């Protein structure tokens, strides 16, 4: 899915073209063009300021235990998880430890996890526990890409994301909150988002 809106705004035409090329290459190299829906980048080395705002396509549904394991109940009332997808094993164990405590989670082998659930709780309810949010990984990748695209030396940064919307602001100087809010809101309007 191609990016619907991709604009780089810069007071210098050569700088604008250079940032378009860099941004395009980075987004392609990190395979973010399928996720980013709209992006507007503003660069003014004279201020100095770099602002990127945009929207993303939905990253996918939350990953739950049922997506990575079959859940059954043994004769002792424990939840028996048969791991079908090891990709999510580590976050699954972390979620189970956080909820039930390590002393109630046992992994006898690489493809099985036994969970002793509290009395009165349905062991099959474990299927609904969220173990991964694709949005989290997407956001980390996007921030990494924007750090590469931003001018070198722009170490003062602000970043934000919520479902489907992001911004990244960088400068060499301090960034007063009211200036960031004003500029970010102005650039978001260009991609059809009102804050």
Give start-end ranges of low-pLDDT stretches.
none
Structurally, how many domains make up the residues?
Answer: 2
**Based on CA inertia axes, which overall geometry fits?**
elongated
Number of helices: 5
Order of helices and strands: EHEEEHEEHEEEHEEH
CATH topology of the largest domain: Double Stranded RNA Binding Domain
Class by alpha and beta content? alpha+beta
What is the end-to-end distance? 26 Å
Radius of gyration, CA atoms, in whole angstroms = 22 Å
Strand content: 25-35%
Main sheet specs:
5 strands, mixed
Mean pLDDT: 91
What CATH architecture of the largest domain would you give?
2-Layer Sandwich
The amount of helix comes to: 25-40%
Level-1 CATH class name of the largest domain? Alpha Beta
What's the β-strand tally?
11
Strand order of the largest sheet: 1-2-3-11-10
Structure explained in plain terms:
There is one protein chain. The strands form three sheets. The protein has a five-stranded mixed sheet, with helices on both faces. The protein has a four-stranded antiparallel sheet with strand order 5-6-8-7. It has a two-stranded antiparallel ribbon with strand order 4-9. It is built from five helices and eleven strands; from the N terminus they run βαβββαββαβββαββα. A hairpin with a 5-residue loop joins β5 and β6. Helix content is 32%, strand content 31%. It is α+β, with helices and mostly antiparallel strands. The model has no long low-confidence stretch (mean pLDDT 91). It has two domains: 5-59 and 134-190, Double Stranded RNA Binding Domain; 63-132, Gyrase A, domain 2, CATH 3.30.1360. The longest helix is centred in the first third of the chain and has 17 residues, at 13-29.
């Amino acid at each position: 899915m191609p990016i619907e809106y991709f604009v780089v705004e810069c007071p210098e035409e050569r700088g604008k073209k250079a940032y378009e090329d860099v941004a395009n290459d980075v987004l392609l190299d990190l395979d973010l063009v399928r996720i980013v829906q709209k992006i507007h980048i503003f660069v003014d080395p004279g201020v100095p300021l770099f602002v990127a705002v945009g929207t993303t396509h939905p990253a996918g549904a939350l990953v739950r235990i049922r997506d990575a394991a079959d859940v059954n109940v043994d004769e002792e009332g424990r939840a028996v998880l048969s791991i079908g997808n090891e990709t999510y094993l580590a976050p699954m164990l972390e979620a189970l430890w956080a909820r039930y405590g390590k002393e109630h989670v046992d992994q006898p082998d690489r493809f099985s996890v036994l969970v002793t659930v509290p009395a009165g709780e349905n062991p099959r309810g474990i299927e609904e526990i969220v173990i991964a949010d694709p949005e989290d990984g997407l956001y980390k990748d996007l921030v990494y890409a924007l750090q590469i695209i931003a001018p070198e030396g722009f170490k003062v940064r602000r970043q934000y994301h919520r479902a489907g919307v992001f911004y990244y602001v960088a400068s060499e100087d301090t960034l007063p909150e009211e200036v960031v809010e004003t500029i970010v809101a102005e650039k978001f309007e260009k991609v059809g988002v009102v804050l």
